[in-house]
Amino acid sequence: MNRKLVVFVPAEALDVVRDAVFAAGAGRIGEYERCSWYAEGTGTFVGGDATSPTVGERGVEERVPELRLETVFPADRHDAVVAALRAAHPYEEPAFDVYELLS
Predict the structure, then answer these.
(1) Strand partners, 68
(2) What is the pLDDT of residue 55?
(3) pLDDT digits over 27-41, tens only?
(4) Residue 63: HSE in the Cβ half-sphere, 13 Å Cα cutoff
(5) I need a surface site. Which of 4, 26, 61, 93 has the fewest CB within 10 A?
(6) CA torsion sign, 68 to 74 to 78 to 80?
(7) Considering the entire predicted model, what is its pTM?
(8) Is 2 within 8 Å of 73 (Cβ atoms)?
(9) CA angle in degrees (0–180, nearest 5) for 53-81-7
(10) Greatest CA span in the chain, whole angstroms?
(11) Cα 52 to chain centroid, rounded
């Protein structure tokens, strides 16, 4: 069974994050490799007292341009894909979701 990864990433880190999750086993659909989709949006956050934000400063609401990146991966590659994402992503706490796919 496959899963879908959705992660929010600054544009300058897109290729680094894509390369990392693809190397960990994501992005294959049939005989195609490095399959993904992305679109622009705006991320918002306020860092708490114990944070060290990559962008902005703690205690201040930030609004930053980001890309929503989506790709698929086999369920048995879950730990490797998530570990690769965390290692490659520039944010202290990357925002991401993983969905089970029914087909």
Answers:
(1) 8, 39
(2) 85
(3) 999 999 999 999 999
(4) 2
(5) 61
(6) negative
(7) 0.90
(8) yes
(9) 45
(10) 47
(11) 19
Residue 53 backbone dihedrals phi, psi, to 5 degrees: -60, 140
Which residues make Cβ contacts (< 8 Å) with residue 15, sequence separation at least 6? none
CB atoms within 10 A of CB 17: 24
CA angle 13, 69, 15 (to 5 degrees): 30
Q: Which residues contact residue 28 at a Cβ distance below 8 angstroms, ignoring those fewer than 6 apart?
A: 35, 72, 73, 74
Q: For residue 34, is it left (φ>0), alpha (ψ between -120 and 50) or beta?
A: left
Residue for token pair 């570990």: 83
- Tell me the backbone φ, ψ of residue 43, rounded to 5 degrees: -95, 145
Amino acid at 33: E
pLDDT digits (tens, 9 = 90+) for 44-103: 999 999 998 888 889 999 999 999 999 999 999 999 999 999 999 999 999 999 999 997
Q: Is 77 helix (H, G, I), strand (E, B) or coil?
A: helix
